[in-house]
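Teaching assistant here, posting this on the class forum so everyone can see the example we discussed in section. The complex has two components, and the goal was to see what a joint structure prediction looks like when all of them are supplied at once.
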Amino acid sequence: MTIQINFDQTWNEELLKRTNDDGPWANWELFQLALEVEQHSIIPEFEGLQAPKHLSDLTPLPHQLEVAKKVIEDMNGKAILADEVGLGKTIEAGLILKEYMIRGLVKKVLILVPASLVTQWAIELNSKFFIPAVSQKKSYVWEQCDIVVSSIDTAKREPHRSIINNLDYDLVIIDEAHKLKNNKTKNYEFVQNLKKKFCLLLTATPIQNRVSEIFNLVSLLKPGHLGSESAFYEKYKKDSRSVNDDEHLKELVNKVMIRNRRSDTGIEWTKRVVEAVTIDFTEEERELYDTIESLKGYEAEDNGAGARSPFSMITLQREACSSREAVYYTLQNMMKKTENPTQEFQDRIQMLGSKIMAITKNSKAEKALELIKKADDKVIIFTEYRATQLYLQWYLKQNGITSVPFRGGFKRGKKDWMRDLFQNHAQVLIATEAGGEGINLQFCNHIINFDLPWNPMRLEQRIGRIHRLGQKKDVMIYNFAIRDTVEDHILKLLYEKIHLFEKVIGDLDDILTKLDFGNMDEYMDDIFTNSNSEGEMRIKMDNLTSMIEFAQNLKDGDRYEAAGNSSIS
Amino acid sequence: MKQQEIHQFLKQFFQANDCELIEANEGYMIVQLTIDLDKELMNRPFYWHYVEKTGGIPNPAKLTLITDPNKAPSDLKGELIHFGAPRLHQLFSCAKRLSGYIRLYENIPGQVNKHTPLRPWLSMNVKISYQCDRKRDIFRSIGLQLINGQLVDNFHQNINKLSLSAKIPDYAFTLSPLIMPKSGMIRIENTIRQTLLQEDHQWAEEAKERWSKDLKLLEHFYEDAEDDRMESLETEKLALKEQYEPKINVSIINGGLFYLASDAV
């Protein structure tokens, strides 16, 4: 067979020139030294990993090395890395990148990650892998630097977009790739148009969720691997839930996807210690909560033609469990948004306002303060509400405790700064929900869930911030709930019924994907809003619980099958 | 490369470049760079520009390099040098850059009445890289005698043990080449190509198979796509070519002219 042979000619010309000019000539020692070095850096085999030899400060875990090897040797450098949260996907991607660079197969690299992780990626690649990655700040960086880290939102905007589209990348790495599951989005189109030789998609969320999602993601990586769009949907129903239902499809997907589970890695994880903290309202707080309760049912009326109010009473109730400030803020918004409010409506707001004013202290905040003092260590407080976040910052300061806020909306630099402040100067970090994703805080091992999200996955993400590789201590999780409120119900569901907190990360995603709720939030919302009585609510919650239990059993069944025990089915 | 070898390399490298080793003990060394090497390594063109324009006293940097933190003094501040360290790779490429071309004479002085004839050899040390979506390299050192056309493999290994000097020794003279260096290079190139053609290239067959497999999938994927998507089909096809196309790259590490006594090789 004929193979293209490229012979470097530049050396020849230069040698002739130097013979003519009679020099300059190299010194013999250096000449020998250079050859010696070159012989050392020659890699005589196609197989095997060179990268570990180059990494003095990093000892990759066995599963990480295995992933790197598999991606390069069996998957031709195109893969979805879907390890569970906290197993070190960044390390795996870094290993693969390093290996390709050492072998000279990759030079130009684009790394797209969530804005909050840009700096962290660049730092890790530089410090752990000695890869000169640069976080994108100016538009000339795209062309001048070989390895650029950026957020996808920046990259897809002009003038960056056109520059990037004209570049040929050897490797593209995309973190949190599950956000690209919809092929109608701008982000998807942008990534699809990148010129790339090798490609790594990183995601912690299992994408077996819907076949359409997996189809879109795989098509980004390796178009045609799952067939053409029409042929694919002819074969698999678009909404069909689980890829696992079809052996053939599962096999195909596994050719481009690697998913390690915590339990497979054989690493000993630190424990999770979960404590449910039930707190009693003060009389005034209870009064506010009950008043809101009694107003249920007026909502539709206030909004005229039966349009659903964006601020349902259930929202107000949840807020009342958090802080009076949260309720106040929402009420204000309600007033502003309602055109021509009726007198009745205004009266009700007024009444709630006076209840708010009557409240003098926040029972949860007091408990939190007590715990923080007792822990005498770094603590993260998660709350769903901005107003609560602000209040807590003020309250802690009154009591001589330093804290920093953290929100999803912060710019990248501010996020890094806040994280840094927390690590080095402040005792407490107060984060809102959106801040939960994309920040690693394993130097801290206490979490207070000041209020509980209704979607258990979100709780998992919160905990995942600190319970990950690198966490050396047992992780303490305090879940706050006010007795005899919606919160109490939620906590009971999460804590007692589905034993959420005792599970390891990952089990939960599997369970939830088995259920086809769509949106867990909405489901919960529905239970609390549309139940006419306490009894109805309880029954619905019980139903939900048994569904989750059912899914869990299904999953356990899977595991037995995988272990070759077919007697279960 | 082991830490010991790295230590050895550093020492040789700086000595070969006329740098003074202020301290050189087990596990670490402190090196006074020369002006030239400072310019090569320290990446401070503005400083040098400034010094030269103002006629200031140049102050080339000192480097403290640690190869074994356990043996170096614990309070010593310096760069830890290991196989992956950027500094080491900078020195590697610097060594390569500074030593691309050489001309040496075998150091066998003759006598007044019996001058030593030295025969010209052209030597090329090459790295041959087999590349598809993976890559491996081999090293070859070839010498060609420019009078009788004799080809020698492992040439570098052969001359490594000789005493060589940059100046022509006393009472020695060089024979004129019958083969010009330019055609000598072509001969060496052809020799390399010849061996490559005779090799078994199963790796390339396999790469082509992987390539055509992916290509088929790709075409199938775009089968029922509209015309405006054809551009991205082409882009993706090109990307596959980049990824899989087997090719062999031959690059020359260094080489040059050697004048050797008749029984040298």
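For the discussion questions: Chain A is about 50% helix and 10% strand. The radius of gyration of chain A is 28 Å. Think about how each of these relates to the inputs above.
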